[in-house]
């Protein structure tokens, strides 16, 4: 019988801390990247390639990592991912040429492919179906909080040297890896892993991709791609869009992103579970896609700091509620294939993170409004797919939680 979240506070805190530390490490380096770029004499193209290398390596490794999570266990993948992340940050901080930096970013992508599916599967293992939405909301909040706090801490640490944020990120990731080694316990038995391993021998990357397009998963994975595509296109272009269209300063842009993220975190922690109970995962996903699409179009027609702040807050909130709702829905459909589903979730996210910024940047050069328009169109396409969403038994997905609440 699965214990309640209250009875597993320590384990959940460690899992959330691992996710928080990983994304804190990512956020730490954001403020110093422009200065580091000048220090290393890197071109804009090189910086773009560094981002792409991370996403591509995560894309390639994610399907395999998902199976390894099922076959080898959740704990070993979490600890391995944290050690690899620590190594990648250390290498980046010590790097003296672009080739070394590419290696670092590739390792960073691998670490993300290891950590995210493992933590998601671990959470699914130790929570009941009733408490899972709340737990997934906490995971999403930990990610957002890492991004919020990271840049501020990174800017402070950078006063001690432009490479110090990388070393600090490496240190805290190493600390998390060591603590997880001694505190976390493997949630699935050796017998279950043997069964998964015997099944895993019959699978390949292409078989996993084929499995992911089954009706039970396909629509959810398409929405995962749509979310990653829309969010990455929106966020990548946001600073350029705000600068070119509104003349906002770097401080203005940072204020908008920070306040929007804080609002999203608070709502995730306080209201996400209640929203799922009221609307169901599918209902919440549809609501978020509708709001996100409308406001993506609205973003091309507004002006003024306060108006942009309000619209951006709501869009970020929609994205941050959509992510855990999707993860929860996929987790419920996964059964004993939690690692596989979490790995493919990461794969489709990586695809969106690769194509979203690339297309967004290309469209921005044509017309600064086009990236937001295409993001809105993709969200409407995702909304259309939710209308034909099939459940595990082949029937149309209903807003079960919301219906129960209504009854």
Count the E strands: 0
Average residue pLDDT: 78
Tell me what portion of residues adopts beta-strand conformation. under 5%
Task: Estimate nothing, just give the exact number of structural domains.
Answer: 2
Assign the CATH topology of the largest domain. Growth Hormone, Chain: A
Assigned CATH superfamily of the largest domain: MFS general substrate transporter like domains
Structural class: mainly alpha
Report the order of strands and helices: HHHHHHHHHHHHHHH
Helix share, percent: over 70%
Major sheet characteristics: none
Kindly provide the radius of gyration, computed on alpha-carbon positions and rounded to a whole number of angstroms. Answer: 20 Å
The level 1 CATH classification of the largest domain is Mainly Alpha
Q: Name the shape in a single word.
A: globular
Uncertain parts = 392-398, 400-407
CATH architecture of the largest domain: Up-down Bundle
Helix count, DSSP H or I runs of 4 or more residues = 15
Feature tags:
0% strand, Growth Hormone, Chain: A, 407 residues, 2 domains, mainly alpha
Provide an overview of this structure.
With 407 residues, the protein is mainly alpha-helical. It is built from 15 helices and no strands. It folds into 2 domains: 1-202, Up-down Bundle (Growth Hormone, Chain: A), CATH 1.20.1250; 204-407, Growth Hormone, Chain: A, CATH 1.20.1250. 50% of the residues are buried. Residues 392-398 and 400-407 have low confidence and may be disordered. The protein has helices at 9-28, 33-39, 44-72, 74-94, 98-126, 132-157, 164-183, 190-200, 205-212, 215-246, 250-298, 305-334, 338-366, 370-386, 400-406.
């Amino acid at each position: 019988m699965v214990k309640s979240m209250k009875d597993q506070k320590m384990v959940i805190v460690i899992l959330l801390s691992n996710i928080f530390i990983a994304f804190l490490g990512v956020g730490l380096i954001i403020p110093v990247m422009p200065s580091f770029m000048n220090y290393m004499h890197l071109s804009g193209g090189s910086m773009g390639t560094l981002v792409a290398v991370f996403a591509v390596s995560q894309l390639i490794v994610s399907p395999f990592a998902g199976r390894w999570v099922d076959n080898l266990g959740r704990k070993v993948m979490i600890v391995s991912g944290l050690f690899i992340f620590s190594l990648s940050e250390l290498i980046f901080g010590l790097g003296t040429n672009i080739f070394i930096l590419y290696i670092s970013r590739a390792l960073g992508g691998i670490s993300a492919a290891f950590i995210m599916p493992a933590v998601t599967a671990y959470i699914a293992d130790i929570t009941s179906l009733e408490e899972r939405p709340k737990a997934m909301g906490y995971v999403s909040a930990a990610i957002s909080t890492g991004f919020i706090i990271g840049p501020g801490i990174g800017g402070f640490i950078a006063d001690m040297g432009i490479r110090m944020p990388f070393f600090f990120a490496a240190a805290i990731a190493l600390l998390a890896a060591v603590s997880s080694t001694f505190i976390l316990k493997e949630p699935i038995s050796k017998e279950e892993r043997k069964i998964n391993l015997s099944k895993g021998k019959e699978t390949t990357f292409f078989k996993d991709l084929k499995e992911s397009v089954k009706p039970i998963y396909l629509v959810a994975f398409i929405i995962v791609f749509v979310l990653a595509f829309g969010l990455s296109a929106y966020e990548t272009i946001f600073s350029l869009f705000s600068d070119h269209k509104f003349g906002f300063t770097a401080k203005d842009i940072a204020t908008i992103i920070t306040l929007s993220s804080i609002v999203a975190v608070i709502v995730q922690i306080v209201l996400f579970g209640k929203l799922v109970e009221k609307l169901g995962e599918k209902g919440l996903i549809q609501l978020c896609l509708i709001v996100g699409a409308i406001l993506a179009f609205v973003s091309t027609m507004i002006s003024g700091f306060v108006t942009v702040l309000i619209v951006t807050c709501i869009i970020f909130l929609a994205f941050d509620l959509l992510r855990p709702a999707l993860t929860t829905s996929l987790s419920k459909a996964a059964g004993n294939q939690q690692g596989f589903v979490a790995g493919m979730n990461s794969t489709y996210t990586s695809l969106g993170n690769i194509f979203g910024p690339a297309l967004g940047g290309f469209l921005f050069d044509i017309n600064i409004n086009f990236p937001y328009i295409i993001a809105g169109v993709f969200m409407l396409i995702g909304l259309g797919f939710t209308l034909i969403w099939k459940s595990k038994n082949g029937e149309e997905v209903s807003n079960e939680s919301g219906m129960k609440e209504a009854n």
